[in-house]
Amino acid sequence: MICLGIEGTAHTVGIGIVRDKPFEILSNVSSMYRPAAGGIHPRDAANHHASVFTDILKKSLDEANIGFGNIDLIGFSIGPGLGPCLRTAATAARALALYLEKPIMGVNHCIAHLEIGRAVTGADDPVLLYVSGGNTQVIAFMNGKYRVFGETLDIGIGNCLDKFGREVGMPFPAGPRIEEMAKRGKKYVPLPYSVKGMDVSFSGILTAAMHAMERERIEDVCFSMQETCFSMLTEVTERAMAHTEKAEVLLGGGVASNRRLQEMVRKMAEERGAKFYCPPGKVLVDNGAMIAWTAILMKKSGMEMGIEDTSIKQNFRTDEVDVKWR
Ligand code: ATP
Ligand code: FE2
User: Where in the chain is the domain with CATH 3.30.420.40?
Assistant: First the structure.
C-alpha cells in the first residue's frame, strides 16, 4: 500500500509518501510558514499552506518517483491544531481523495509522531516524550489506547523558547539559537522548577528568564532555561516509564533536535537500563510522512472513514483514538 499524507496542524505544511511493504519513506517534502514579525497568525499560516500546496505536492510525487495512479490512500492531520491550518489540509485531502477515487483517513497528529518514531527507530513499545512548539506531552500505550501521562499545564516548551527568543530579538524559531547560546553559558541562574504531579508548566520560567535578562548574561539565561525545562521533562518522562514499566523511551517534536535534551533523556534511560531512541530530524519535526504512515496503520487495521467523517478536531485528544492496529 502507498499512502500520500498531508500534515497541516500549525506552521508547517508537509506532504509525505510512504510505502508499507517494505516500509519506506518515498518522499517527505514540507514548507514552513515564518511570520515576518511577532507570533504565528493562524489565518496567515493557512494562506501560506494553500499557496505552496500544489508546489510541494508536485515535489513530493517527483521525489517519490511515482504518479497519482500509484497512490492507494490519502491521509491527513485531522487534529489537534489551529483551525484554519487544519481546514486547509483537510480540504486538500478531500479534494485529492474524491478526484483520485481513493479512501481517506484523518490522523491524530500526536499519535503520528509516536508511530513514525517506532517505524524508523525500531522502538517497540516506548514512552514518547513529545516536545514541539504547541505540544508538550508524555504519551504511552496502555489498555488499547495511547494515554497522556503528563503534559504542560500552560504553553508548549517550544513556545516558551520561541517567546523568550522573540523578546530578546532572536529570529523565529529561537530554539536552535538558544541551544547555541546555552553552550557558552557558565552560571546557573535559578528559575522556578515547575513540576506538578506528572505535569509541567513553562510560563513562570519564561517570566523569570525575562527578569533575569536585566542582570545576567544572555548565555547564562539560555543555559539555565535549558537546564531547568529539560530536567523537568526528563523527570516526568522517567516517572511515566516507572509507572508503565516500559523499558524504551522515544523522542518526538522539533525541540527533540536539542542535543542537551537528548543527552539528559539518554542518560536517564541508561541509568534505568532502558533503551533510548531519537529519530532523524526530518521525521522529528512536523512532516507528511508521519501522517501517511499512521494512515496506513489505521487502514490496515480495518478502520474506514467517509468524507462525512473528516471534520477537523481542533482539540483532538490523544486518548480519544481507539488504537486498533496494536
Ligand atoms: P506542533 O504543531 O506539533 O506543536 P510545531 O509547529 O511547533 O509543532 P515542530 O517542527 O515540531 O513544530 O517544532 C518546532 C519547535 O521546535 C519550535 O518551537 C523551535 O524553536 C523548536 N526547536 C527546533 N530546534 C530546536 C533546538 N535545537 N532546541 C530547542 N528547540 C528547538
Ligand atoms: Fe507536531
Answer: 2-113+283-320, 125-280
* Residue 271 C-alpha from the chain's centroid: 26
Q: Is the pLDDT of residue 172 over 90?
A: no
State the pTM of this model.
0.96
Average pLDDT of the chain, as a whole number = 97
Ligand 1: which of 41, 132, 170 to mutate, judged by most atoms within 8 Å of the beta carbon? 132
Q: What is the mean pLDDT of residues 109-122?
A: 97
Q: How many Å lie between the centroid of ligand 1 and the Cα of residue 19?
A: 27
| Residue 67, CA atoms < 13 Å, CB-side half-sphere | 1
Per-residue DSSP letters for 244-267? HT--EEEEESGGGG-HHHHHHHHH
Nearest ligand (C-alpha, residue 230): 1
Ligand that lies nearest to the alpha carbon of residue 226, given by its number in the listed order: 1
Instruction: Decide yes or no: CATH 1.10.3660.10 for domain 2-113+283-320.
Output: no
Average pLDDT over residues 179-195: 98
Question: Whole-angstrom Cα distance, residue 217 to residue 212?
Answer: 9
